[in-house]
Amino acid sequence: MSSEKSKAGNIRTRNSQQILQAAQEEFVLHGFKGTSMQSIADRAQLPKANIHYYFKNKANLYRVVLEEIMTAWNHVLADMNNDSDPAEVLSKFIHAKMQLSYTNPNGSKIFAMEIIQGAPHLKEHISQDMRQWVREKSDVMNSWIAQGKMRKVEPSYLIFMIWASTQHYADFETQVLEVTNRREYDDEEINKITTFLTEIILKGLDIPIK
Amino acid sequence: MSSEKSKAGNIRTRNSQQILQAAQEEFVLHGFKGTSMQSIADRAQLPKANIHYYFKNKANLYRVVLEEIMTAWNHVLADMNNDSDPAEVLSKFIHAKMQLSYTNPNGSKIFAMEIIQGAPHLKEHISQDMRQWVREKSDVMNSWIAQGKMRKVEPSYLIFMIWASTQHYADFETQVLEVTNRREYDDEEINKITTFLTEIILKGLDIPIK
DNA sequence: GTCTATATTGAGATAGAC
DNA sequence: GTCTATCTCAATATAGAC
Predict the structure, then answer these.
(1) pLDDT tens digits for range A6-17
(2) Which tens digit of pLDDT belongs to each residue from B84-121?
(3) N or C: which end of chain A has fewer CB within 10 A?
(4) Is the pLDDT confidence value at B16 over 60?
(5) pLDDT of B19-72, one tens digit each?
(6) In chain A, positions 170-199, which contact chain B (CB-CB < 8 Å)?
């Protein structure tokens, strides 16, 4: 009995994952409204009705995809402790965001499209969790400024600059690869970009690089 | 006779502009596939059939919207002369891109979504015009480096950083305004951001600010 | 838990009256 | 040049057999 149950649970888990994966890829290519349940089904190699068996409707499926992305991001960024050393904290932050762009570009792309379209499914999350997150980090940065550890700047501008210049390599992947005439990123390239961004930003803030 | 002709021409121009404006706004909200001709017609306050009278089909209308955006950008960015002073050229570049984000956020957003989705309608433009543009600017920057006018960095990374951190204020407008608890940008805010970005980047490159 | 068949709505596009 | 009516196809969603 329990083995049947766990087997069923495994099928459920496996299919759910397959659908979520396929959904991510389709949502990236065509956006929320532009994606059809049929195309997700085809990509997941399941009949369309099965998608509706696992997820009530398209909006629900999209919501789950978004939640998975936000959860993955929270795990990585919550890890950024309030260390008192700006060079270390900012380096880690830039590194973490670049790795996210490298390892999960689709998550970044879906999030970006959601925001560009006015965040109809995420406004609440942004005005609560995200605003709180920016406030906390801004407080830390302001204390660094008060201690003379970095140049006086508006912390939120700095946070946006780091978000923008790291996410760019996920969201605008197509443009970057076309312009630089490459087929894909590799570890070495990502490391060089990370070093470049870190140096510009630390120097730009008058923070000595360790 | 000629007055009839010019009047007809005026109606044509006026309606075309109305449709293009409406189309831009709808494409921003729902993407290419997600936008319906009916919703564009409603926004332009014209019957749907009129949209098809002015534009052969949805793909054609979208293409014209994209071309308008690319033309506006080219005008502004071509203006950037190959001045030999890095501080001045880079400041002007950052300023011009921030003003574009401020004055035409919808253009930036539609372009961003197009790239995120893999640039199905723009790949040719990117791999030709844009690659060429980056090459030219990279050559100028490399000459600055050779002359000791700035720190040695990979020019394309620098260009991407400026694109990313300026466009962010157009594309992620919703997120920025929600997080900073504002209703809209104003001239003062845009100027402060421009100054911030310019200072970080020039300092980050060891370029003395004039 | 799976999948075929289908109800229902909305989409792009055009014909043809005005 | 304008707009109503309509064709055709694709979409979401579900019923119900297996």
Answers:
(1) 566 788 899 999
(2) 899 999 999 999 999 999 999 999 999 999 999 999 99
(3) N
(4) yes
(5) 999 999 999 999 999 999 999 999 999 999 999 999 999 999 999 999 999 999
(6) 171-172, 174-176, 178-181, 192-193, 196-197, 199
Name the DSSP class of A210: -
What do you get for the CA distance between the two ends of chain A, in Å? 60
Q: Assign residue A119 a region: left if phi > 0, alpha if psi is -120 to 50, beta otherwise?
A: left
Put simply, the chain B residues between 95 and 154 with a CB less than 8 A from any chain A CB are 109, 112-113, 115-119, 123, 126-127, 130-131, 134, 153-154
CA distance B37 to B47: 10
Q: What is the pLDDT of residue A3?
A: 41
Q: Is the pLDDT of residue B162 over 80?
A: yes
A156 close contact with B: CB closer than 8 A: yes
Q: Identify the band that residue B7 occupies on the pLDDT scale cut at 50, 70 and 90.
A: low
Task: Count CB atoms within 10 A of the CB of residue B95.
Answer: 17
The answer to whether the predicted template modeling score (pTM) of the entire model surpasses 0.85 is yes
Q: What's the mean pLDDT when you consider all of chain B?
A: 93
Strand C within 7 A of A165 CB:
no
Give the domains, in start order, of chain B with CATH numbers: 2-56 (1.10.10.60), 66-204 (1.10.357.10)
Q: Residue A200's closest chain B neighbor by CA?
A: B204
Interface of A with B in 44-103 (CB under 8 A): none
Which residues of B fall within a CB distance of 8 Å from A59?
Answer: none
Buried b (16+ CB within 10 A) or exposed e, B11-26: eeeebeebbbebbbbb
Q: Report CA B55 to chain centroid distance, whole Å.
A: 23
- B44's tokens: 């332009």
Evaluate whether B151 touches B145 at the Cβ level (below 8 Å).
yes
Supply φ then ψ for residue B97, to 5 degrees: -65, -35
